[in-house]
Amino acid sequence: MKRVNYLLSITFMASILLLSCKKIFPTAPEASETLDGPIEGLSPEENKRFLAGDAAFARAFTPATGLGPGFVATSCISCHAGDGKGHPSTSLIRFGQVDGTGNMYLDRGGPQLQNRAIPGFSPEQIPDGAHFSTFLPPANAGLGYLDFVSDADILALADPTDANGDGISGVPNWIDLPAFLNPRPGSVSQNGKYIGRFGKKAAAYNLLHQTVNAYNQDMGIVSTYVPIDPYTGNLLDPEVTNQEVEDLVFYLHTLKAPSPRSIENSSRAKQLFEDVQCAACHLPKMKTGDSPIQALSNQTFYPYTDLLLHDMGPGLDDHYTEGQALTSEWRTPPLWGLGLSPIAQGGSYFLMHDGRARSIEEAILYHGGEAQNSRQLYEALPTSDKELIIRFLKSL
Hints:
Layout: H1 2-24, H2 44-58, E1 70-71, E2 92-95, E3 116-117, E4 132-135, H3 143-147, H4 151-157, E5 173-175, E6 189-190, E7 193-196, H5 207-219, H6 242-253, H7 266-275, E8 286-287, E9 300-301, E10 309-311, E11 329-331, H8 341-344, H9 360-365, H10 372-379, H11 383-395
C-alpha cells in the first residue's frame, strides 16, 4: 500500500513539475517570428554544412587568431544578432569615393574605416576631405534566393531612360570583379563589368564577395581570397581557412526567407501598397534560376526588392558611392522581415542605410528623387489607409 501511495505521490509531483515548467520556461517562437534557421529541402550533408557555417558565423576572433590590427567587429554575429539588422552601435563607415572613377583613399585606409584596434595600434581616422557614409548591417535572411536571381531577370526590370514614364528609372550597379571571383553561369557583362546585387550600393557581386570583404574589412582577417591586411597593406598568410569561408557562404545561402504574418484586410493593404507605387521598386515577387543548391533552384520568392539602384534625391545623398552608382543612388532594400527588425535592434527601429529613420513611416517620408511621387501619394492617404500600409509592411 505504501509503495502504491509513493508511486502516486511521485506521479502527482511529476505532473506538478511539468505544469510548472510550462509556466516557467517560455515556448519556442513561431517560425514567422524568427529570421534564423535553414531553408527547407536541404540534404543531411547540407544541413551538416549549414551548422558548420553557423559556427563560423558565431566565431569570435582575437588578436591571437587574426583579429585586426584594425577592425570594426570581432565576429559576424556581433553585427547581425539573430541574423537580423544591425544597430547604430554596430554601423560601418565607408569613405573615399565620390563618383564612378574609384576610391581615392585606398592608400589611407579606404574604403572602410577600422574604428577599433588591438592593443599597440591606433584606430583609423577618416582622412581630411574624404566624403563618407554610415551603413547599418543588413538582415541576412533569404540571401541565397537573391544570389541566384538571373542577371537577365534583373536587367528586365531596369528602366534607365524611364521608358514607361512613371518617373522611376532603376539601373544595375556595374562593378569590377575581384580576381578571386568567376562570373556565375549566364552572367551579363558590360565593358568588362558585372552586375552587383549585395550591399547598400549593390557593390558586391555575390555572397562570396560580400563575405570575404566582411572578413577583411570588418575584422581584419586575411584569407587566400584577399591576402592583404587592410590596416598595414602587408601581404600575410591566411588567418581563416577556405573551408571556413565557404561554409559561412553556404550558411548565408541557405538561411530561410522571412515568413509573412497574416493581418486583417491584407488584400486591401497590398492594393494600397501598389496604388502608391511602392511596388514599382519594392517588387513583391522574384524567382531564382538554376543553383548548385537544389533547394534554391527555380524558386519563386517574395523579397520586395528589384535589386536595382534608384536615385533617392538630395536628402539621401551622402556624397559617397561604390562601383558605378551615383552618390544619391541606393539599391532597393528587401522589405521581407521588416517587422522583425526591432528584435535585433534593441526593441526599436533604425531604418534607411544609416539608421536615421526611427519608424517605418519616417523611413517612407525620407524617400525623395524617384520615390518622391510615391511618398506624396502615401502622404495624401487618410490616416486609416496609412496605418494599414504600415501593418502590411510589418507583416512581410
